[in-house]
Design goal:
Helix content is 11%, strand content 20%. By secondary structure, the chain is an alpha+beta fold. The protein has a domain at 27-118. The longest helix has 11 residues, at 84-94. The structure holds zinc ion.
Length: 137
Amino acid sequence: MSMKLILGFGGGGGYYPYTQKPADYQPYRPVYLFRGPPPDAGFSYGLFEDPDLNRQYYADMGLEIFSPFTGKPANLLYEVEPPEDRKLVELYEDQETDMELVKCPHCSSDYRQNIRHHMKGRDQLFCHRCGGKLQFK
Ligand SMILES: [Zn+2]
């Protein structure tokens, strides 16, 4: 299965009528939501979906999976395997400046995410490992 495109928010909004190529040219950089430790650190990752919001995101795999958006159980769509895991590393490195460090006050997990960066206004987020509510300053 190929990487699923998550439609970009903002994304620069560049539409340049004189330089735009026809057909399959995409003016928006695709946005992939990410939550977890750096993907080259040896963790297994999956593509998950929040069943309420129908929003997809990449996160590290675990026995129990909670939606970062609602704190409720999320669905695993598939486990990321080679060579797609390479894309995840590239995504992480490409968006490294967008990846904020999060520390869960409930289970003491450390990880990074670009979720707030790409979902402006959504400051109520939950730990995908324990379902606890996260706090942002
Ligand atoms: Zn937690």
